[in-house]
Amino acid sequence: xxxxxxxxxxxxxxxxxxxxxxxxxxxxxxxxxxxxxxxxxxxxxxxxxxxxxxxxxxxxxxxxxxxxxxxxxxxxxxxxxxxxxxxxxxxxxxxxxxxxxxxxxxxxxxxxxxxxxxxxxxxxxxxxxxxxxxxxxxxxxxxxxxxxxxxxxxxxxxxxxxxxxxxxxxxxxxxxxxxxxxxxxxxxxxxxxxxxxxxxxxxxxxxxxxxxxxxxxxxxxxxxxxxxxxxxxxxxxxxxxxxxxxxxxxxxxxxxxxxxxxxxxxxxxxxxxxxxxxxxxxxxxxxxxxxxxxxxxxxxxxxxxxxxxxxxxxxxxxxxxxxxxxxxxxxx
Length: 332
Ligand code: KG4
Ligand code: ZN
Known about the structure:
Layout: E1 2-7, E2 12-19, E3 22-30, H1 42-64, E4 73-79, H2 83-100, E5 104-108, H3 109-115, E6 128-133, E7 138-145, E8 148-154, H4 160-170, H5 178-185, H6 208-224, H7 228-259, E9 263-267, H8 274-287, E10 290-292, H9 303-315
Parallel strand pairs: 1-4, 4-5, 6-9, 9-10
Antiparallel strand pairs: 1-2, 2-3, 6-7, 7-8
Helix pairs in contact: 1-2, 3-9, 4-6, 4-7, 5-7, 6-7, 7-8
The structure holds 5'-O-[(R)-(carboxyoxy)(hydroxy)phosphoryl]adenosine and zinc ion.
Residues 10, 134-136, 161, 164-165, 176-179, 182, 268-270, 272-273, 300-301 line the site of 5'-O-[(R)-(carboxyoxy)(hydroxy)phosphoryl]adenosine.
């Protein structure tokens, strides 16, 4: 079964080819235009997707040595994401499927982040818990099967990726700031500035409080010393990163206890964070958990994970019609 997958939910245009569940190519074109604006500009994202989608799909076919006439199905990200950006991938997938007379498979981007764990060994056994952390979402997902998962906790305001990116902006780092905070944090003291963690009931998260306390803290310090940020950048990054990771892992511990579970996975862009990867590994050793951490290439947005989700849906016979439309918010 030869599957083409397309991802266009945010600022990455990506296409992948999967043959019988094996990933043959995964081409990602990252839109650099947003960095000068300090965040993703939706209209610019849509236009960049329009420009890149054909060359990206062609490259994915070429790299996998597949002719488009050999495709058996097309999977695409239906949502959640930026509506205009999703529209480009959805329209492209629909048109190509119509012209080739092959079935279409719609994929939920957040579920695909979880299923990225099945692209390569080691693959988790069901059931397991997945902490899915990206620029737009922070979720604890209970995964009982590839097409059977439910959200058992999520953020009530900002996503953790947003907390990374907004902190980065406050200290003058370009977008996306998450990876830059990660890099600077390696040289800083994580205990220098203790930020309050707050406490949400149950398994939910909140990151708006910490964002505000970072802002007030920086404003206060800069008043006393205008060079405060420049002089203490690494320590600020290390302290913020430690706090954000601690907030995430507290809830992971709670959920693992409640579910009596011993398998934990992380997924989404923020799962590329080296501090989170290290702390989760340590926590796993302490608690005798099996810990699943994706390869860097499958953490941030990519069509390989859309292909994996599409593959499972193909096997289950879950197709959609030409009347499908993208969803900025995708409830499940
Ligand atoms: O999953 P993703 O690529 O896109 C969304 O679906 O949102 O996640 C992007 C997010 C951004 O907020 C980015 O700053 C964050 O992932 N991110 C990181 C790291 N790499 C990416 N955050 C912290 N440390 C990193 N190494
Ligand atoms: Zn994502």
